[in-house]
Amino acid sequence: MSLRTILAEDKTLITFRPSLRRVLGSVKSVILFQQILYWYTHTGGKFYKFTSPCTHKLYKEGDSFSEETSLSAKEIRGALESFAFKCGKKNKDLYGDSYEETRDAAMVLYYTDSNRVTWYKLNEEVVEAMLNDLYNRPESTYLIKSQRALTKVKSLKEVTKVKSPRAVTSSTETTTETTRENISTTPKDFDRFWDAYGKKVSKGQALRAFHKAIKAVSLKTMCSAIEKQKKTDKWRNGFQPNASTWLNGMCWEDDINAMMDRKREEQKQKERLTLT
After folding, report:
1. Position 234 in a domain
2. DSSP 170-236
3. Do the strands 84-86 and 108-112 form a parallel or antiparallel pair, or are they unpaired?
4. In terms of residue numbers, what domain contains 213?
5. How many structural domains does the chain have?
6. Are residues 28 and 91 in the same domain?
7. Phi and psi dihedrals of 134, rounded to 5?
8. What is the pLDDT of residues 139-170, one digit of tens each?
9. Phi, psi of 141 (to 5 degrees)
10. What angle do helix axes 124-135 and 203-213 make, rounded to 10 degrees?
């Protein structure tokens, strides 16, 4: 049997679903999320997993996320930030009154027990809602087939202070906004976004996505993009994505003129077909 055949029939390969990248933001996040989904399903619920090889007595060779995915420990931590929430006192102090709402909006929950073993649990309700939103609703056609290239977001280090996040550079920001360090946000900031967006579905997921997005772009830029996109035929016809999908996909960077040009071209093609 040739090496090509062996590789082609290797059942240990990790499946990659490109459509999930639109929601999770990066290839690494998709790979790790699918691995967690696999183990949660095959173990029948909550499971423990080590990030990388270690000397812990419960560790078995080959049984860590790093060995299974070839991601480094740093890459795994960065990927988790896009869809998971770490439960515990540290985040309770960090998030304060919004702790439970933020936790309940995460797709994956995890915590480290007193024996230094990290347990993972799928938030089934949130995951089902995400998958339904991605695959079963009208706007999913746009989400999956969109030709806009996603701008890669830098992996953020574990947040230690809400008011002092690591800066992320966005090409749409003005020169006075490109370094967004020491961003201070309040519940009213999210309320302003929520009211501006209009489609009030899955608020918890939107809140979590907003906390991440505001580190990359100003609220003013978000609201400006929303007002422009509300005027497009796609949104007017009811194909407006949920707020969390819009935020995770960095859709404030969508080229409105290109969207309008494509619409006009589609209309011209329909007219030509009618004439023929």
Report:
1. yes
2. -TTS-TTTSS--S----HHHHHHHHHHH-----HHHHHHHHHHHTTTS-HHHHHHHHHHHTTSHHHH
3. parallel
4. 162-266
5. 2
6. yes
7. -80, -40
8. 444 343 333 333 333 333 344 444 444 444 44
9. -60, -40
10. 80
Amino acid in the structure at residue 186: T
Chain centre distance of CA 80: 10
Decide if 151 is inside a domain.
no
Q: How many CB atoms lie within 10 A of CB 237?
A: 9
Least confident of 51-65, 145-159, 201-215, 236-250: 145-159
Question: Tens digits of per-residue pLDDT, 173-226?
Answer: 433 343 444 455 667 888 889 999 988 888 878 888 888 888 888 889 999 999
What's the CA gap between 242 and 140, in Å, rounded? 10
pLDDT at 46: 93
Rounded CA-CA distance 267/263 in Å is 6
20-34, 183-197, 220-234: least confident range: 183-197
Supply the pTM of this predicted model. Answer: 0.52
Contact 229, 255 (CB under 8 A): no
pLDDT at 51 over 80: yes
Coil, strand, or helix at residue 48? strand
